[in-house]
Protein backbone atom coordinates (compact mmCIF):
# COMPACT_ATOMS: atom_id res chain seq x y z
CA UNK A 1 0.00 0.00 0.00
CA UNK A 2 2.74 2.47 0.98
CA UNK A 3 4.56 1.75 -2.27
CA UNK A 4 1.46 2.39 -4.35
CA UNK A 5 0.76 5.65 -2.60
CA UNK A 6 4.33 6.84 -3.01
CA UNK A 7 4.51 5.94 -6.68
CA UNK A 8 1.01 6.99 -7.83
CA UNK A 9 0.04 9.88 -5.60
CA UNK A 10 1.48 12.71 -7.65
CA UNK A 11 -0.14 15.45 -5.59
CA UNK A 12 0.81 13.69 -2.39
CA UNK A 13 -2.60 14.16 -0.75
CA UNK A 14 -2.73 10.64 0.69
CA UNK A 15 1.02 10.63 1.41
CA UNK A 16 0.54 13.74 3.50
CA UNK A 17 -2.36 12.11 5.37
CA UNK A 18 -0.19 9.11 6.15
CA UNK A 19 2.49 11.37 7.59
CA UNK A 20 -0.19 13.12 9.67
CA UNK A 21 -1.34 9.76 11.06
CA UNK A 22 2.24 8.99 12.08
CA UNK A 23 2.41 12.30 13.91
CA UNK A 24 -0.69 11.35 15.91
CA UNK A 25 1.14 8.38 17.41
CA UNK A 26 2.72 10.30 20.24
CA UNK A 27 2.39 7.35 22.60
CA UNK A 28 5.23 4.97 23.30
CA UNK A 29 5.33 1.21 22.89
CA UNK A 30 6.20 -1.25 25.70
CA UNK A 31 9.95 -0.70 25.17
CA UNK A 32 9.48 3.05 25.53
CA UNK A 33 10.06 3.69 21.83
CA UNK A 34 7.91 6.34 20.14
CA UNK A 35 5.34 4.72 17.86
CA UNK A 36 5.65 7.63 15.49
CA UNK A 37 9.36 6.91 15.05
CA UNK A 38 8.66 3.18 14.64
CA UNK A 39 6.26 4.01 11.78
CA UNK A 40 8.88 6.15 10.06
CA UNK A 41 11.45 3.39 10.45
CA UNK A 42 8.97 0.88 9.06
CA UNK A 43 8.21 3.01 6.03
CA UNK A 44 11.93 3.55 5.29
CA UNK A 45 12.77 -0.15 5.56
CA UNK A 46 9.87 -1.91 3.86
CA UNK A 47 10.70 -3.05 0.30
CA UNK A 48 8.49 -4.13 -2.59
CA UNK A 49 9.08 -7.13 -4.89
CA UNK A 50 11.68 -5.08 -6.80
CA UNK A 51 13.51 -4.55 -3.48
CA UNK A 52 12.77 -0.81 -3.55
CA UNK A 53 11.92 1.10 -0.38
CA UNK A 54 8.91 3.42 -0.28
CA UNK A 55 11.26 6.41 -0.31
CA UNK A 56 12.93 5.18 -3.49
CA UNK A 57 9.76 5.50 -5.56
CA UNK A 58 9.01 9.26 -5.36
CA UNK A 59 12.70 9.93 -6.14
CA UNK A 60 12.60 7.50 -9.04
CA UNK A 61 9.44 9.15 -10.36
CA UNK A 62 10.96 12.60 -9.96
CA UNK A 63 8.06 13.45 -7.61
CA UNK A 64 9.63 16.52 -6.04
CA UNK A 65 6.55 17.45 -3.95
CA UNK A 66 6.62 14.13 -2.11
CA UNK A 67 10.40 14.37 -1.68
CA UNK A 68 9.88 17.86 -0.23
CA UNK A 69 7.40 16.52 2.37
CA UNK A 70 9.73 13.66 3.29
CA UNK A 71 12.63 16.11 3.63
CA UNK A 72 10.55 18.14 6.06
CA UNK A 73 9.88 15.03 8.14
CA UNK A 74 13.56 14.02 8.10
CA UNK A 75 14.52 17.44 9.42
CA UNK A 76 12.02 17.28 12.27
CA UNK A 77 12.72 13.70 13.29
CA UNK A 78 16.43 13.63 12.46
CA UNK A 79 15.79 10.25 10.94
CA UNK A 80 19.18 9.17 9.61
CA UNK A 81 17.85 6.13 7.79
CA UNK A 82 15.21 8.19 6.01
CA UNK A 83 17.63 10.82 4.72
CA UNK A 84 20.17 8.18 3.71
CA UNK A 85 17.46 6.25 1.79
CA UNK A 86 16.60 9.45 -0.08
CA UNK A 87 20.21 10.33 -0.85
CA UNK A 88 21.00 6.82 -2.05
CA UNK A 89 17.84 6.66 -4.17
CA UNK A 90 18.77 9.96 -5.88
CA UNK A 91 22.32 8.70 -6.47
CA UNK A 92 21.33 5.25 -7.76
CA UNK A 93 19.08 6.70 -10.43
CA UNK A 94 21.45 9.60 -11.23
CA UNK A 95 18.77 12.18 -10.36
CA UNK A 96 20.90 15.30 -10.09
CA UNK A 97 17.93 17.61 -9.46
CA UNK A 98 16.64 15.71 -6.42
CA UNK A 99 20.20 15.12 -5.16
CA UNK A 100 20.70 18.91 -5.18
CA UNK A 101 17.34 19.39 -3.39
CA UNK A 102 18.38 17.02 -0.60
CA UNK A 103 21.83 18.56 -0.20
CA UNK A 104 20.37 22.05 -0.19
CA UNK A 105 18.11 21.04 2.68
CA UNK A 106 21.12 20.10 4.78
CA UNK A 107 24.59 19.67 3.30
CA UNK A 108 25.87 17.80 6.39
CA UNK A 109 23.68 14.84 5.37
CA UNK A 110 26.33 13.86 2.84
CA UNK A 111 28.12 12.38 5.84
CA UNK A 112 25.31 9.92 6.58
CA UNK A 113 26.64 6.39 6.72
CA UNK A 114 24.92 3.03 6.08
CA UNK A 115 25.49 -0.26 7.93
CA UNK A 116 28.54 -0.95 5.74
CA UNK A 117 29.98 2.46 6.73
CA UNK A 118 29.47 3.57 3.13
CA UNK A 119 29.01 7.31 2.55
CA UNK A 120 27.06 8.78 -0.42
CA UNK A 121 30.36 9.27 -2.40
CA UNK A 122 31.03 5.51 -2.09
CA UNK A 123 27.66 4.84 -3.75
CA UNK A 124 28.16 7.43 -6.49
CA UNK A 125 31.69 6.17 -7.25
CA UNK A 126 30.66 2.51 -7.30
CA UNK A 127 28.06 3.07 -10.05
CA UNK A 128 30.16 5.51 -12.09
CA UNK A 129 27.90 8.51 -11.43
CA UNK A 130 30.43 11.20 -12.31
CA UNK A 131 28.16 14.27 -11.85
CA UNK A 132 27.11 12.94 -8.44
CA UNK A 133 30.73 12.40 -7.35
CA UNK A 134 31.54 15.90 -8.55
CA UNK A 135 28.62 17.43 -6.65
CA UNK A 136 29.39 15.59 -3.41
CA UNK A 137 33.12 16.33 -3.51
CA UNK A 138 32.32 19.98 -4.19
CA UNK A 139 30.93 20.00 -0.65
CA UNK A 140 33.60 17.93 1.08
CA UNK A 141 36.88 16.77 -0.40
CA UNK A 142 37.73 14.79 2.74
CA UNK A 143 35.11 12.21 1.71
CA UNK A 144 37.68 10.89 -0.81
CA UNK A 145 39.63 9.44 2.14
CA UNK A 146 36.68 7.97 4.03
CA UNK A 147 36.89 4.21 4.33
CA UNK A 148 33.87 1.91 4.37
CA UNK A 149 33.65 -1.04 6.80
CA UNK A 150 35.85 -3.15 4.50
CA UNK A 151 38.54 -0.49 4.23
CA UNK A 152 37.73 0.81 0.75
CA UNK A 153 37.89 4.45 -0.34
CA UNK A 154 35.41 5.63 -3.03
CA UNK A 155 38.22 5.42 -5.64
CA UNK A 156 38.67 1.68 -4.95
CA UNK A 157 34.97 1.10 -5.69
CA UNK A 158 35.20 3.15 -8.91
CA UNK A 159 38.18 1.04 -10.01
CA UNK A 160 36.36 -2.19 -9.08
CA UNK A 161 33.41 -1.08 -11.21
CA UNK A 162 35.65 -0.10 -14.15
CA UNK A 163 34.49 3.54 -14.11
CA UNK A 164 37.40 5.33 -15.79
CA UNK A 165 35.97 8.87 -15.65
CA UNK A 166 35.27 8.61 -11.93
CA UNK A 167 38.74 7.15 -11.27
CA UNK A 168 40.19 10.08 -13.24
CA UNK A 169 38.14 12.58 -11.20
CA UNK A 170 39.04 11.02 -7.85
CA UNK A 171 42.74 10.87 -8.75
CA UNK A 172 42.68 14.68 -8.83
CA UNK A 173 42.12 14.57 -5.07
CA UNK A 174 44.68 11.87 -4.50
CA UNK A 175 48.25 13.12 -4.88
CA UNK A 176 49.84 9.72 -4.27
CA UNK A 177 47.78 6.63 -5.26
CA UNK A 178 50.63 4.36 -4.11
CA UNK A 179 49.51 5.20 -0.55
CA UNK A 180 45.76 4.69 -1.17
CA UNK A 181 45.53 1.05 -0.06
CA UNK A 182 42.49 -0.87 1.13
CA UNK A 183 42.89 -2.28 4.62
CA UNK A 184 41.86 -5.90 3.92
CA UNK A 185 44.35 -6.79 1.17
CA UNK A 186 46.50 -3.64 1.10
CA UNK A 187 45.75 -3.23 -2.59
CA UNK A 188 45.94 -0.06 -4.67
CA UNK A 189 43.54 0.93 -7.48
CA UNK A 190 45.64 -0.81 -10.15
CA UNK A 191 45.66 -4.10 -8.20
CA UNK A 192 41.86 -3.90 -7.90
CA UNK A 193 41.27 -3.07 -11.59
CA UNK A 194 43.61 -5.87 -12.73
CA UNK A 195 42.11 -8.47 -10.40
CA UNK A 196 38.59 -7.67 -11.57
CA UNK A 197 39.40 -7.48 -15.28
CA UNK A 198 38.88 -3.73 -15.72
CA UNK A 199 41.11 -3.30 -18.77
CA UNK A 200 40.24 0.35 -19.45
CA UNK A 201 41.07 1.43 -15.91
CA UNK A 202 44.41 -0.44 -16.10
CA UNK A 203 45.24 1.30 -19.42
CA UNK A 204 44.18 4.71 -18.11
CA UNK A 205 46.44 4.49 -15.05
CA UNK A 206 49.48 3.17 -16.90
CA UNK A 207 49.11 5.67 -19.75
CA UNK A 208 48.63 8.60 -17.38
CA UNK A 209 50.84 11.66 -17.84
CA UNK A 210 51.68 11.49 -14.15
CA UNK A 211 54.76 9.26 -13.67
CA UNK A 212 53.76 8.52 -10.05
CA UNK A 213 50.82 6.48 -11.37
CA UNK A 214 53.12 4.17 -13.36
CA UNK A 215 54.87 3.10 -10.15
CA UNK A 216 51.76 1.15 -9.16
CA UNK A 217 52.64 -1.58 -11.65
CA UNK A 218 55.27 -3.36 -9.51
CA UNK A 219 53.86 -2.72 -6.06
CA UNK A 220 52.88 -5.71 -3.94
CA UNK A 221 49.72 -6.30 -1.89
CA UNK A 222 49.57 -7.98 1.54
CA UNK A 223 50.30 -11.40 -0.04
CA UNK A 224 53.15 -10.05 -2.10
CA UNK A 225 51.10 -10.21 -5.32
CA UNK A 226 51.68 -7.55 -7.99
CA UNK A 227 49.14 -6.34 -10.54
CA UNK A 228 50.45 -8.97 -12.95
CA UNK A 229 50.11 -11.83 -10.40
CA UNK A 230 46.50 -10.81 -9.73
CA UNK A 231 45.52 -10.49 -13.41
CA UNK A 232 47.08 -13.89 -14.17
CA UNK A 233 45.47 -15.65 -11.20
CA UNK A 234 42.03 -14.20 -11.99
CA UNK A 235 42.40 -15.24 -15.64
CA UNK A 236 42.37 -11.90 -17.43
CA UNK A 237 44.59 -12.63 -20.45
CA UNK A 238 44.00 -9.25 -22.14
CA UNK A 239 45.35 -7.45 -19.09
CA UNK A 240 48.27 -9.89 -18.69
CA UNK A 241 49.15 -9.39 -22.38
CA UNK A 242 48.88 -5.60 -22.02
CA UNK A 243 51.08 -5.53 -18.89
CA UNK A 244 53.75 -7.80 -20.36
CA UNK A 245 53.87 -6.47 -23.93
CA UNK A 246 52.79 -2.84 -23.82
CA UNK A 247 54.56 -2.12 -20.55
CA UNK A 248 57.67 -4.26 -20.91
CA UNK A 249 59.91 -1.42 -19.83
CA UNK A 250 57.95 -0.86 -16.63
CA UNK A 251 56.87 -4.31 -15.47
CA UNK A 252 59.20 -6.57 -13.48
CA UNK A 253 58.45 -10.19 -14.43
CA UNK A 254 60.77 -11.65 -11.79
CA UNK A 255 58.94 -10.37 -8.72
CA UNK A 256 57.74 -13.12 -6.38
CA UNK A 257 54.86 -13.16 -3.92
CA UNK A 258 54.89 -14.56 -0.37
CA UNK A 259 54.54 -18.10 -1.80
CA UNK A 260 57.69 -17.44 -3.80
CA UNK A 261 55.74 -17.55 -7.09
CA UNK A 262 56.44 -15.40 -10.13
CA UNK A 263 53.56 -14.66 -12.51
CA UNK A 264 54.92 -17.34 -14.82
CA UNK A 265 54.58 -19.89 -11.96
CA UNK A 266 50.91 -18.92 -11.60
CA UNK A 267 50.30 -19.20 -15.36
CA UNK A 268 52.09 -22.59 -15.43
CA UNK A 269 50.05 -23.94 -12.52
CA UNK A 270 46.83 -22.90 -14.33
CA UNK A 271 48.12 -24.65 -17.45
CA UNK A 272 48.96 -27.85 -15.50
CA UNK A 273 45.53 -27.77 -13.88
CA UNK A 274 43.84 -27.39 -17.27
CA UNK A 275 45.86 -30.29 -18.70
CA UNK A 276 44.98 -32.59 -15.81
CA UNK A 277 41.27 -31.77 -16.10
CA UNK A 278 41.37 -32.79 -19.79
CA UNK A 279 42.95 -36.19 -19.03
ZN1 LIG B 1 33.32 14.50 3.84
TrEMBL record:
ANK repeats lie at residues 150-172. Keywords: ANK repeat, Repeat. The keyword Repeat applies. GO terms for cellular component: plasma membrane. It is found in: Cell membrane. InterPro entries: Ankyrin_rpt (IPR002110), Ankyrin_rpt-contain_sf (IPR036770). SUPFAM superfamilies: Ankyrin repeat. It comes from the Eukaryota. This is Ankyrin repeat protein.
Amino acid sequence: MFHEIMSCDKRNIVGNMIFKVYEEYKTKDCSGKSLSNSCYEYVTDIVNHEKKTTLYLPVENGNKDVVEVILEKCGRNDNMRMRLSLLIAAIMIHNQEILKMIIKKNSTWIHSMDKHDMFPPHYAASIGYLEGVDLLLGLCKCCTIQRDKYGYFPIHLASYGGHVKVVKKLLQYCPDPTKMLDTSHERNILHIAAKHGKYEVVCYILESEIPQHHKLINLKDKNGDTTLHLAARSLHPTIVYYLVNQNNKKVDLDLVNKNNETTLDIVSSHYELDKSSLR
